[in-house]
Specification:
alpha/beta; six-stranded parallel sheet; five-stranded antiparallel sheet; 35 strands; 44% helix; globular; disordered C terminus
């Protein structure tokens, strides 16, 4: 229902034709869409024609292919089908050569070596080559019949097939092969209320709304034209350069495939663009995909402004279930109509699942991608009221009005919508004054918080999206006002941010620097940023694990507790569990970490820690990321536990009733020597971890973090726990005890292998028969059946699904079984959230934390109960007002949930998402997973069961429910996934978060890498060789050489230059005695190539210098060549370098913090050459100063650098050299260079 822009690839050949068959003709096929002028057909059918869009159209030098002009079918065939000038047919008729009609290179035609496709390609190429013209559609059909008949007979055995049958068979073969990328379909759709008003209002109003929509699309495309469209050139596409703009066509469609009103535009952006120098190249799709949310948000903001400006329509934000942010709709459009016109697609899903099940039953396997797509389209048609060909827009509008009138209160709803036209609602949004610096600064802070709520680092495109989203809440007079304010907000936000991408460390010539001042290999959007607060939080936490404190437990007390546990339980802790307890008790630092993979018994270690600490007369305060996890922690180790947020909400100053940063204001008393014991620490956010360190430091307490960085991350910004584990010694458990009390070592080993993402773990689950695959419906049904069977056997079982939709489906199936068994009484039901209902006997789950209050006889409020997110209940009674009497499944106590809480915050609780299952332990687990499941999610799901853990893998390919029919034409037809494939995909999806420091280290390593130097050199030397040939070749070219022959000689010149040989001295010999040569150029080229060495050099030598050469580039090339070819320099003498005692204290903290992500060592002073020996020496010289409690920004520098800074008192503002600094020093220096605040 929200406004959006979807992004899809379109393929060459016939890949574009869905726009003619589906969009332009409203799903009805007609042969007239294949040839000739489309305008008359569009008008007859009532659907508007496609039109050209984009600044890049100027490159066609055409009077008819210009912005806003109707698109012709043959033009689309040439551009999107072949990658040639859209007017190729007309140009050829006028005598223009075939080569001059090319836009760079025409699209290749792939055949996957299918015989009939090979034969057809050869026949079509022969026509193009011999007749210098394009193949017509009629000729293509004739060739398919003529050439394809032989192959059709071989494949089918039918000898008397009609031409139509043969063409259909040939097309089926084509569909199996993925063709080249022809472009991208950007589909712009307004909020549902816009489409509803457009569909039900009078024609004049509908036309105005459509015009507003098209203006908004145009503004979004302007942004793509100027800020996003890029192309790449050079080896490996190393250089990303700007373009002259996009080339696109816009087609308008009126309804969804399900028949609901949906005004939207398909903008088909061509893969062909011109670089600024006029060269035709391929559009770089990566920036387009990266910015698709920013483009969508700009469209939304523009549409809101234009609807206000042109029609006085006001927008209002409405809450939507399962979304943090509301959706902006036209104020006054009834919610009932929005809902009514948004549900039809859901009706097709069960029909689609029936088709999948029937196919699997018949063939014993899942269908391929194209078959699935066809099934979905058929399911859509099965749910439509009328399966008829294209209707005019007037007919569609009449149908929609009729549907509204057929509903209860239809007249009233229709009148309410139409009244908006004459009397719009009063817009509550305020106009944004462009000179309101205070508001700009306020919104800059707001969008920074928004983007860092979800991640520790971000790009400019994230800020662009967030700014446009926030600005929907304001009014603007003009597009310039909106764009100016947005740009100023983004600039203000970037001024407050810290750049994680280092400034250019290499001394590059101007040839390798773009107009924007950045190196040619710097990608649009590659710059990453974070905030000072996140960096400070990360540094604070990493410092805390090395910050010494004099708080310990005696070994005697630890030994005593271990012995008491052994005496009481009859078994002893294993070595790892004991070491973990000792480490947490005696780390001697403010903070310490412990790693416990799933099922390794970390709870037992925490019980020992608690017992020892309490024996010393000190308190242990249990903390966890969620209320449910806190309750489990408290119960397992026998203390009161609460959520981390309970402390940090007040400490941060966000609690309006209590002072921040004040120990006495916290809801829990924390005294000197106490321990904050945090479980599931990997799910804690960066800010929360840092604040717990601050609280412990202020109180004189200590904090201990226990968790597993390989399990689920924080919902917000995270990854810090893993960095802390790398930053200082930690204790990690390795013996998995969960499975059959440690006896099932085979499953234990498999779980640890799975944890690391190794696919060999799959063999274990397959061997035990715990891996099954099938359609989603099959897997959900099978998992539910297995779960119910386990429950009936008395086993504690858990059923887990990867998506909320699957959880809902499982809940419904299990509830139906319980009703059938008489466990649940469905005679009286109350509504729950998310469309669920519940009756007596149902199990429900609470989804929000809440306290319930009542007023006593004295007028005082009294708490009558508390519910925590994740708490499970069984319904014991249903109230007439929608309230529920429930019993807690774990504690057994009874309470009442009021109707408001029940309807907004309770769901059926039979199935669990993977996130909610973390921390649970049962007998058996049944996990329904699909290709979207992550590695950490899979690991969590398959380690809940102490006995068995079953995988039910959904092998059906995801269906794009909103796509037009045939949008993926010629995108290939991959076969169905196997169950193992699904699990392998999950293991490959490592979605764990990275800290800002880790990101900076990666960026630093990339910028300084040896490979980058080689790639930049290769790009520069290639350009220099081309320039050399351009400057000298004409003097050696013979006038009688053909263009083709001259090209061959030029290619030979280039080969010689790349091998370090100047071709000019050889030209006299190569051109001597051409008697009998049919192609002089080919002979000369062949002779020159005899001078090439047997093996090419590892590094291409720069070409000879000319008086016209770029002197700066020539000098740089020769210096870089010398560096790249110089032998490694070993340290002088045989003795290793002498290091200070401080340098020998331990391994570098940056290596411990960043692990595999640690940056390569920086180059030596000046512009030296990085070698393995130098890198090793520099790496060794980096000293760990953990015991000194220094911040990470100091710790990553070399001892000498640190000493010089500390002794002289210099900072980066005072001119410390940039080129040779380590990552964190460089981070601050870059920050200063960009006039941003230093840390």
């Amino acid at each position: 229902m929200t406004a959006m822009m979807s992004f899809r690839a379109v393929h060459a050949g016939d890949g574009y034709t869905y726009l003619l068959r589906s969009v332009a003709t409203n799903d009805a096929y007609d042969a007239s869409t294949e040839t000739g002028t489309l305008a008359g057909y569009y008008q007859a059918k009532g659907t508007p024609p496609g039109r050209w869009r984009g600044r890049g159209l100027a490159g066609f030098n055409s009077d008819t292919v210009v912005d806003g002009v109707v698109v012709e079918a043959d033009h689309m065939a040439a551009l999107y089908g072949l990658g040639m000038h859209p007017q190729t047919d007309e140009m050829l008729e006028l005598g223009v050569s075939f080569d001059d009609c090319k836009l760079g290179g025409k699209f290749p035609v792939y055949t996957n070596d299918v015989p009939v496709l090979n034969a057809l390609r050869a026949a079509e190429n022969a026509i193009v080559r011999e007749e210098k013209r394009l193949v017509t559609d009629a000729e293509r059909s004739e060739l398919a019949v003529k050439i394809g008949r032989k192959y059709y007979v071989e494949a089918t055995g039918y000898t008397h097939a009609s031409g139509e049958d043969i063409v259909a068979w040939v097309n089926e073969q084509k569909q199996q092969v993925r063709q080249a990328m022809a472009g991208y379909d950007l589909t712009f759709s307004p909020a549902k209320s816009v489409s509803v008003l457009w569909a039900l209002a009078d024609e004049d109003t509908a036309s105005k709304i459509a015009a507003c929509h098209h203006r908004a699309v145009a503004e979004a495309l302007d942004f793509v034209d100027t800020e996003v469209a890029r192309t790449r050139r050079g080896a490996k596409g190393i250089a990303q350069v700007t373009t002259r703009g996009i080339i696109a066509t816009e087609f308008t469609h009126f309804d969804t495939r399900a028949g609901d009103p949906d005004l939207h535009s398909h903008v088909l952006v061509s893969n062909k663009v011109q670089a600024e120098d006029g060269t035709w190249l391929a559009l770089d799709g990566q920036p387009l995909f990266m910015h698709h949310q920013a483009i969508s948000a700009r469209y939304d903001a523009a549409l809101h402004r234009i609807l206000d400006e042109e029609m006085g329509l006001s927008m209002v934000e409405r809450a939507r279930e399962n979304t943090k942010e509301g959706v902006w709709e036209i104020d006054g459009v009834p919610e009932e109509l929005i809902e009514a016109f948004s549900k039809r697609r859901a009706l097709a899903r069960p029909i689609y699942q029936q088709y999948l099940a029937a196919y699997a039953e018949k063939y014993g396997r899942q269908p391929d991608k194209l078959t699935q797509k066809n099934m979905w389209q058929q399911a859509i048609l099965d749910t439509r009221d009328a399966k008829k060909p294209a209707e005019s827009l007037a007919a569609l509008r009449d149908n929609w009005v009729g549907e509204v009138l057929d509903t209860a209160d239809g007249d009233k709803l229709l009148q309410q919508v139409r009244a908006l036209v004459d009397k719009p609602m009063q817009d509550q949004r305020k106009f944004f004054l462009t000179d309101n610096e205070e508001l700009i600064d306020e919104i800059a802070d707001k969008i920074l918080r928004r983007v860092t709520d979800k991640r520790s680092f971000f790009g400019r495109h994230h800020l662009d999206t967030a700014a446009s989203t926030v600005l929907k809440g304001y009014r603007f007079h003009t597009a310039d006002e909106l764009n100016t304010v947005r740009d100023r907000i983004i600039t203000a936000a970037l001024d407050k941010a810290v750049a994680l991408t280092p400034a250019e460390p290499l001394n590059l010539p101007k040839h390798l620097i773009r107009a924007d001042g950045k190196a040619v290999d710097r990608r649009l959007g590659s710059e990453k940023y974070t905030t000072r607060s996140i960096l400070a939080a990360e540094d604070n936490a990493v410092q805390a694990v090395t910050e010494p404190v004099a708080v310990f437990a005696s070994n005697a007390l630890v030994d005593k507790a271990l012995q008491q546990h052994s005496d009481a339980k009859g078994w002893s802790l294993n070595t790892g569990q004991a070491e973990l307890a000792r480490h947490l008790l005696n780390a001697g630092t403010l903070a310490a970490t412990g790693v416990g993979p799933a099922g390794t018994g970390k709870t037992t270690s925490m019980q020992i820690v608690t017992a020892v600490w309490q024996e010393m007369g000190r308190n242990v305060i249990g903390l966890a990321p969620s209320a449910a996890a806190a309750e489990v922690l408290g119960g397992e180790i026998g203390i009161d536990a609460t959520t981390i947020d309970q402390l940090t909400f007040t400490w941060s100053g966000r609690n309006p009733w209590r002072r921040g940063h004040t120990l006495s204001e916290l809801p829990v008393q924390i005294s000197a020597g106490d321990m904050l014991l945090v479980d599931e620490a990997g799910m804690a956010t960066t800010e929360n971890i840092s604040m717990l360190c601050d609280i412990a430091r202020e109180a004189g307490a200590i904090v201990r973090f226990v968790g597993d960085p390989h399990q689920l991350d924080a919902v917000g910004n995270g990854g810090l726990f893993g960095a802390m584990c790398n930053a200082a010694p930690t204790a990690e458990l390795t013996d998995v005890m969960r499975f059959s009390k440690g006896k099932d070592t085979e499953q234990a080993d498999a779980s640890l292998t799975l944890r690391l993402g190794r696919t060999s773990a799959i063999d274990f689950y397959d061997k035990r028969g715990w891996l099954e695959g099938g359609s989603r419906a099959q897997m959900l049904t099978a998992a539910v059946d297995a779960y119910l069977a386990d429950v009936n056997r008395g086993r504690r079982s858990l059923i887990i699904a990867a998506t909320n939709a699957d959880v809902d489906a499982i809940n419904e199936m299990i509830r139906a079984d319980r009703i059938e068994q008489g466990i649940v009484d469905d005679s009286v039901e109350v509504p729950l959230a998310h469309g669920d209902v519940a009756g007596v006997g149902d199990i429900i789950i609470a989804r929000t934390n809440q306290k319930f209050w009542t007023t006593d006889n004295n007028g005082r409020e009294r708490c009558t109960g508390r519910v925590i997110n994740g708490q499970m209940f069984v319904v014991t009674a249903v109230g007439d007002d929608g309230s529920l009497q429930v019993r807690d499944l774990n504690k057994g106590h009874n309470m009442e949930l009021d109707s408001t809480y029940v309807s907004h915050s309770c769901h059926l609780g039979y199935a669990a998402t993977i996130h909610r299952s973390q921390g649970a332990t049962v007998d058996t687990t049944h996990a329904v997973v699909d290709a979207s499941t992550s590695r950490s999610g899979l690991y969590v799901a398959l380690t809940r069961g102490a006995k068995e853990n079953h995988i039910w893998a959904v092998t059906e390919a995801p269906v794009d429910e909103t796509a037009e029919d045939m949008h993926d034409h010629l995108a290939g037809n991959p076969g169905p996934l196997e169950a193992r494939d699904v699990v392998e995909l999950a293991l490959s999806r490592d979605t764990r978060q990275r800290t800002a420091r880790e990101t900076h280290a990666t960026k630093w390593a990339e910028a300084h890498s040896w490979q980058r130097r080689r790639d930049l050199y290769a790009y520069a030397v290639d350009g220099a060789i081309d320039a050399f040939i351009d400057a000298t070749f004409d003097a050696y070219r013979r006038p009688w050489w053909s263009d083709e022959g001259a090209d061959k000689v030029q290619q030979a010149w280039k080969a010689m230059l790349e091998n370090g040989s100047d071709p000019r001295p050889h030209m006299g010999w190569a051109t001597w005695d051409m008697t009998g040569a049919r192609d002089d150029g080919a002979v000369v080229a062949c002779r020159l190539r005899t001078k090439l060495p047997a093996a090419p050099p590892s590094v291409v030598q720069p070409p000879p210098m000319l008086s016209s050469s770029d002197r700066e580039l020539d000098v740089w090339l020769r210096e870089a060549y010398a560096e790249l070819t110089a032998p490694p320099q070993a340290p002088a003498g045989d003795a290793p370098p002498q290091l200070s005692a401080k340098a020998l204290q331990g391994r570098s903290l940056i290596d411990r913090v960043l692990g595999d992500a640690a940056p390569a060592a920086p180059p030596p002073r000046g512009r030296g050459v990085e070698t393995s020996d130098v890198s090793a020496q520099e790496s060794t010289m980096r000293s760990s100063k953990a015991a000194q409690g220094m911040s990470l920004i100091d710790l990553v520098a070399t001892p000498d650098d640190l000493n010089s800074v500390h002794k002289t008192g210099k900072t980066t503002d005072q001119g410390i050299e940039q080129e040779n600094q380590h990552p964190a020093e460089q981070l601050d220096a870059d920050h200063t260079r960009d006039n941003k605040p230093t840390l």
